[in-house]
Write a structure and sequence with these properties.
Elements: E1 2-6, H1 17-20, E2 28-36, E3 42-45, E4 50-53, E5 64-70, H2 72-81, E6 89-100, H3 106-114, E7 116-123
Parallel strand pairs: 1-7
Antiparallel strand pairs: 1-5, 2-5, 2-6, 3-4, 6-7
């Protein structure tokens, strides 16, 4: 099992969460909530209002999201869904645990107790330079006050 941190449309209550609970795509087990240890710019960009975490460590905010434990099948689905490695790149990042529900081995419990876990995160280094000038968010909600509702793939 791999640990994945999601910060956008795959979170609970967001437009693509349905994929995280679709066992035909693999298994994803909610572990808890967290935020990036380093600051990153989280922007909403493009004509479909897609959330992107720009891989510019030290700039922006500590981005909030959810931590999941996923099997190989779900990880492969997520790679395809996220257009990895062209649109997003899957990299390991340190995530500060804010709230932990995960049950697992002693190593997992110790990591959570220490407050920081390593997770795969889909961020991007392949973005138009003007995205750096967009507003930075610390948390994503498709129906947030930014007014930039995400456009589902089936509606594009």
């Amino acid at each position: 099992m791999a640990r994945v941190f999601v910060y956008g449309t795959l979170k609970k209550g967001q437009p693509n969460y349905k994929h995280m609970i679709d066992t035909a795509k693999g298994l994803a087990k909610f572990q808890g909530r967290g935020r990036t240890v380093e600051k990153y710019p989280l922007v909403i960009a493009g004509k479909y209002n897609i959330p992107y975490m720009l891989n510019i460590p030290g700039t922006g905010h500590h981005v909030a999201g959810e931590i999941y434990s996923v099997d190989d099948q779900m990880l492969q689905f997520l790679d395809e869904f996220e257009g990895c490695p062209d649109m997003y790149q899957r990299t390991l990042m340190r995530i500060e645990v804010v709230e932990w529900e995960g049950k697992g081995g002693a190593g997992e419990a110790r990591a959570a107790a220490e407050g920081v876990v390593e997770c795969f995160v889909y961020s991007t280094t392949t973005y138009p330079p003007e995205w750096v000038g967009l507003p930075y968010h610390d948390s994503y909600d498709s129906s947030g006050k930014h007014g930039l509702s995400y456009v589902l793939r089936e509606s594009r």
